[in-house]
Amino acid sequence: MGAIMKKMRNRRRIIAGTIVFCGIIIAAGILSFPNIPGALPVSAAPNPQWTQSAGAGTAVPACASASLSMTCSNNQPQVTFNLSGDDNPDGSEALYINYPSPIYSSQVPVPGSFTIPAGILANNTSYTYRLQDLFLDADNVPFTTPNCAPAPTVSMSANPTTINQGQSSTLTWTSANATSCNIDNGVGGVAVNGSTSVSPAVNTTYTITCSGPGGSAQSSAAVAVNQPQTLTVSKSGTGSGTITSNPAGISCGSDCSESYNYNTSVVLTAYAVAGSTFTGWSGACSGAGTCTVVMTQARSVTATFSLQLPGDFSLSPPSADCNSVSLSWTASAYADGYRILRGSPRVDISPYQPYTALNYIDYSVSQNTDYLYQIEAYNAGGTNRSNTINVTTPYCSPTAILNGSPNSIFQGQSSTLNWN
Prior knowledge:
The protein is mainly β. The protein has no helices and 36 strands.
């Protein structure tokens, strides 16, 4: 070359002489070099120009320019430089990535295209490139590689999907292309593949978020929670008794309400105390056997108990005097007391109530008179009467009492006799 060029970045030089540059011979002219960037981005302005100020007076295109095409191949960025324009006589320029401490450099053909080898450039990373000819400095032009990392995928399920409160469900998930995963609702960070047990108190949807170089992905699984249901038992009627449950919880008696897990089958049994009878269920059950309820909702059941009527008993034959009648009878089961009935219609001649003795002497009778007797046993549930007995009082036998006053005298004296 007829002259030695110096660096001309950021300034203009005027050189006289004969110069051979980019395949053009210019004689006895003056060359004017404006600031020349090394290259422009894909969508940059027109190629930089150098011009000849004297001589032929013709503007000539710059040595080289590049447009970039960026794609993904095998999850890595692929960057291709499409080069055009004039070049040095050897038909190439130097390409530098991250000049002045390049991570990669190569002579590239101009015009032509050149692809950076795989493995040099990372995903979603900022770099600069520089096209350097033999004589001129050029600018570093920034570019950013695309993110070619594969997007994560994740799938999560729950088993079982419906539980009773207090039970647990297992969340199981698998993911791909993820480096970390997190499950909400208090579970927290988890492995990228795995399972964990959860025990929500209410219906809950769990969402897993897995992240990786290619972004993030989510999957959800819902766990429905059946709430406990309350069983309430009550008693009615004149009698008494208790109610128990299987499974345990009801002992009514004292504990007449209990919560059971959803869909639990509860069997209720009624027990009457002595003197009472269980007569049947009402509410969520009917009949007089055991009661079975399935706790898919709150339920209430009533057990009715009735007192047993006094049991059968008998009035024994009485003994009668002319002025009294003695009565006795057998006991009546479940009786709270007895009424002594006489005559027709019956008149209660019991001395007091409750009268619980099993005998009675009637002194309100007259001799040689017919009387009818019957005993009535009673309790809160009702009454029961004995057999009836008729009795006639006899005549009273004559009696005489004779005495003298005084009852001892001397001969010749007198005594007064008195008699009844």
